[in-house]
Amino acid sequence: MSALFVKCDVRTGLFKTEYLVSVPPGANNFYIDRTDVKVSKAPIGNETVDGMVLAYLIEDGPNEAVVEMTGTPVDGGLRISVPKAMTRAA
């Protein structure tokens, strides 16, 4: 599996070691270890910031990619489909 980064919305998690990540923004939510999330500044309180989250490429389609997220899903499963425009090589 190839690693890549996926654009996401980032909020504080339940613990100081994690973030609550939404991918695609607002659709699927995951608790992800902070070491797997890139943000320009850490969210404070209920603030949401833009970020990039580490994922693993499962299937590469012409317009979309199926990726497997690290962490714990809040809703749904670990594998999601995202537009390729939201991905970047790790």
Structure description:
Strand 2 and strand 3 form a beta hairpin. The radius of gyration is 12 Å and the shape is globular. Strands 1, 2, 3, 4, 5, 6, 7, 8 and 9 form a 9-stranded antiparallel β-sheet that branches. It has one domain. It has 90 residues and is an all-beta fold. It contains no helices and 9 strands. Helices cover 0% and strands 60% of the residues.
Characteristics:
90 residues, mainly beta
In angstroms, what is the radius of gyration? 12 Å
User: SSE order, as H and E?
Assistant: EEEEEEEEE
Continuous helix count: 0
User: How large is the share of residues in beta strands?
Assistant: over 45%
Question: What structural category characterises the helix and strand content?
Answer: mainly beta
The multimeric state of the shown protein is: single chain
Overall, the morphology is globular
Total strands: the figure is 9
Overall pLDDT score: 95
Span between termini: 12 Å
Q: What are the segments in which pLDDT stays under 50 over at least 5 consecutive residues?
A: none
* Biggest sheet layout: 9 strands, antiparallel
The count of domains is 1
Share of helix, binned: under 10%
In short:
This protein is mainly β and 90 residues long. It is built from no helices and 9 strands.
What's the layout of helices and strands?
Elements: E1 2-12, E2 18-23, E3 28-33, E4 37-39, E5 49-60, E6 64-69, E7 72-73, E8 79-83, E9 87-89
Antiparallel strand pairs: 1-2, 1-5, 1-9, 2-3, 3-7, 4-5, 5-6, 6-8
